Amino acid sequence: MRNSGLPEEPPGPQGRDPQGDDPLERAVWRLRSRACWDDAAALLAPHAAEDPGAALRRTEVLTERCVFTGRGWGTAEDALRAAEALATDDEERGAAACERGHLAYAATLLGVRDRADEARSALGRAAALLAPASPTRPLLNFRRGLIAQHLSENPSDATAAFQRAHAGAAAHGQRLLLSFTWRHVAAMAEHDGKLTEARYGFAESLRIREELGYLIGIAPALASLAAVLPDAEEAARLRAEAGRLVRLLGGVPAWLADRLPPDTAPA
After folding, report:
1. Do residues 64 and 15 lie in contact, with contact meaning Cβ atoms separated by under 8 Å?
2. N or C: which end of the chain has fewer CB within 10 A?
3. Which domain holds residue 101?
4. Rounded to whole angstroms, how far apart are CA atoms 80 and 97?
5. CATH classification at residue 125
């Protein structure tokens, strides 16, 4: 189920919020949030050789590059296989399965190759491995909602999954994921004609992304909010701002650049 008139969101957050004062995590966050995925992956590479967590984070960074640029699928797949090989317990194996499901879903949604069955199977495996209180479970619920929304076209299942993900992200303090759950809860409200709820959710998604400094995610949030504003002048201002951000980032995200009006499209 797609929302007519609303630019497609990249298929879910890759990676996590910046954690505490860890210099590596902060550096990776700054780079990836500004579309410098190769540099972020290079920072993680020495640690990813032996550390399952670092290997998974590197996979997340490289998958995010695929989603925002449409390139680098083979590199992301190689990184994912390396992360799977390093996983030693159910939490690590479940998180890796969640990433496999996400990569397969993204490739399907963006028309690279139909991997829908692989995506569903991998997310089902993740659900069996992850404990109910696992911090990865909110992300798993969100990704299952994406499949229900975009591949199965089941709005009731999608809404329920997004709501579970939203509650879990709030409980675990996962603000980046919360920005995505707000957006998709809002998209479902827009689909149902509940425009006041949709505007609130899109505005919350934008607010969180701005507070986090998630630069690559701000233009999509601006475009989504603009689509449900009653004030045409304000909507045009937000779309123009989104266009400037896309140009600043060199045409990223590519899927949004293709949907911008000609006067704001990147050169």
Report:
1. yes
2. C
3. 18-130
4. 9
5. 1.25.40
* Residue found by looking up tokens 């002048």 in the block: 233
- Give whole-number Cα distances, 40 to 25, 135, 156, in Å: 10, 23, 37
CA–CA separation, 51 vs 92, rounded Å?
Answer: 11
| CA–CA gap between residue 243 and residue 170 (Å, rounded) | 30
Task: Give helix 73-86 / helix 90-109 axis angle, nearest 10°.
Answer: 170
Q: Are 161 and 145 in contact (CB under 8 A)?
A: yes
Local confidence pLDDT in tens for the 267 residues of the chain: 333 333 334 444 444 555 557 899 999 999 999 999 999 999 999 999 999 999 999 999 999 999 999 999 999 999 999 999 999 999 999 999 999 999 999 999 999 999 999 999 999 999 999 999 999 999 999 999 999 999 999 999 999 999 999 999 999 999 999 999 999 999 999 989 999 999 999 999 999 999 999 999 999 999 999 999 999 999 999 999 999 999 999 999 988 887 766 554 332
Residue 179 lies in a domain: no
Enter the pTM of the model. Answer: 0.89
* Number of domains into which the chain is organized: 1
Domain-located, residue 46: yes
